[in-house]
């Protein structure tokens, strides 16, 4: 078989020592984007590969020992979140490639380009721009895309069961999640909307964070919000109140259900939510003027 032509290495040249973290369970990591092909096509010197989560994430020390300059994350938002949290003390640059289902972080950094095009763009730039990413933080966890608190977070179990092909478990989890979605809620302290809400969504922003308090009653309200969400204008829904506090506190029974970039966690309340910026630099291949 003819070997793929390497991209002309200008910025991310063959001298660039890279460590790849890939999650084969992420929604769009496929054979066509195999690790070997990626390395061959980029002419980046792929020194090590971690298959997550079967293998543990490398530590900053491991990257330093191998003199790694570029960390390539080929996975979905959940995996990227895990690596970005674990390696925030490391001084190198990160290239995010869309390997997941939603790929919200990859879209922020590269628009809708595919992995091959992203590497080509990054390689063609003598000094690719690397930017810190904003995050929201609660307990030991961070979200770079969104943190969802409240009963709707229980839907993650149903999604995970579907992904694993466990349809009976998915059905059970969906029934529980549906019931919980209309019971309980979370209380938001330290904001103008200091009361119980169906769910609270915290979204990081370079200037701080946005907190959306969601108040839907029953399934008609939920369906309406769902349609508004699909149409892309959920933030303007009458069921949603947007605030920009510097910090807030969430309460909700003995344990609060949360999703951090799609990964499900339960934490005891009250839970302080704050925001910050990563120390890691993430390579961005689209300018703000480009189409998102
Ligand atoms: N920190 C983690 N520890 C263990 N497993 C994880 C972790 N993060 C993600 N996973 C698992 O890896 C699989 C793929 O998740 P990932 O978020 O990478 O891709 P995705 O869900 O397809 O994409 P996206 O999050 O962009 O929609 C899921 O089963 C997820 O639960």
From TrEMBL:
Q: Name one Pfam family in it.
A: DAGK_cat
Q: Which residues form the DAGKc domain?
A: 13-140
Cite a single GO MF annotation: kinase activity
List, alphabetically, the InterPro entries matched: ATP-NAD_kinase_N, Diacylglycerol_kinase_cat_dom, NAD/diacylglycerol_kinase_sf
What name does the UniProt record give this protein? DAGKc domain-containing protein
């Amino acid at each position: 078989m003819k070997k793929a032509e390497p991209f002309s290495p200008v910025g991310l040249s063959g001298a660039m020592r890279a460590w790849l973290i890939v999650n084969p369970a992420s929604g769009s990591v496929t054979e066509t984007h195999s690790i070997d092909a990626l390395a061959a096509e980029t002419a980046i010197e792929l020194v090590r590969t971690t298959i997550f989560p079967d293998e543990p994430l490398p530590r900053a020390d491991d990257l330093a020992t191998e003199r790694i300059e570029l960390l390539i994350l080929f996975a979905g938002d959940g995996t990227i979140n895990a690596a970005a949290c674990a390696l925030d003390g490391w001084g190198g640059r990160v290239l995010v490639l869309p390997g997941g289902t939603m790929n919200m972080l990859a879209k922020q950094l590269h628009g809708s380009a595919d992995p091959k095009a992203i590497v080509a763009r990054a390689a063609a730039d003598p000094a690719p721009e690397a930017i810190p990413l904003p995050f929201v933080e609660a307990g030991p966890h961070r979200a770079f895309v969104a943190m969802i608190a409240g009963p709707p977070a229980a839907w993650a179990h149903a999604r995970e069961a579907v992904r694993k092909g466990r349809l009976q478990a998915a059905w059970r989890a969906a029934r529980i999640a549906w019931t919980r979605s209309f019971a309980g809620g979370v209380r938001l302290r330290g904001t103008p909307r200091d009361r119980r809400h169906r769910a609270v969504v915290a979204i990081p922003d370079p200037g701080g964070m946005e907190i959306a308090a969601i108040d839907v009653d029953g399934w008609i309200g939920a369906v309406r919000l769902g349609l508004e969400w699909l149409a892309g204008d959920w933030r303007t829904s009458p069921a949603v109140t947007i605030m920009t506090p510097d910090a807030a506190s969430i309460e909700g029974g003995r344990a609060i259900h949360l999703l951090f970039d799609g990964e499900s966690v339960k934490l005891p309340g009250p839970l302080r939510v704050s925001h910050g910026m990563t120390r890691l630099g993430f390579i961005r291949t689209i300018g703000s003027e480009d189409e998102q």
